[in-house]
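Our preliminary data section would be incomplete without showing what the modeling component actually yields. Below, a chain of 217 amino acids is followed by its predicted structure, encoded as tokens that our downstream tools consume directly.
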Amino acid sequence: MGILLMLSALRGLSEYEANARAGKWREGMQLTDDPFQKTIGFIGMGAIGKSMARKTKPWDMKVIYHNRKPLPAANEAALDATYVSLDELLATADIISMNCPLTPETRGLLSDAEFAKMKDGVFIVNTARGAVIDEPALIRALESRKVARAGLDVLTTEPCRDSPLFSNPRVTVQPHLGAFTKGTILRGEREVFANVKQYLETGVPVNPVNRPAKISP
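Predicted structure:
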């Protein structure tokens, strides 16, 4: 979903699909962007951030990231990713992808002050949680063109029935569909069974949340 939203934002897919459906075809169309050799900044580099970073390689993108702590050097090398401060990421990224958990510290992490530090015409992608971005501040940044376009799979209030973001043609909005696929659900079910099986056999699940000591079943 993150790569889909990045491409949609770069290429203006929501805007130009609406034009085509309205019979305007290429009327008023301007050249859009592509990901080739762009700098993408990940705020949060967990499993989803790493997966997205791997998928950027065919476009020769520069990958920078900010996280609670840097990844091990081997992981950084495998991803060709560079750890930077949040301020450096905001100032240098062409595309900013939100992949961090929602915590008291990350709520409203991107607000007016942060948008002011970004490049003019930056692209924003959010597949984390809606509240990590101050939505009124994002709307203001879109109106001023500080943010060129945005791709959002999450909103602060869900389900959301009414938002100024819905009427902005430069925003792609999805109703939190990141994991809403047949394949994802099937893999999740298999993972549940694998955890139960391994726990019964060894006392340790495949994916322990807090890495407990081995427990005799």
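The chain is about 35% helix and 15% strand. The first strand starts at residue 39 and ends at 43. Preliminary results of this kind motivate Aim 1 of the renewal.
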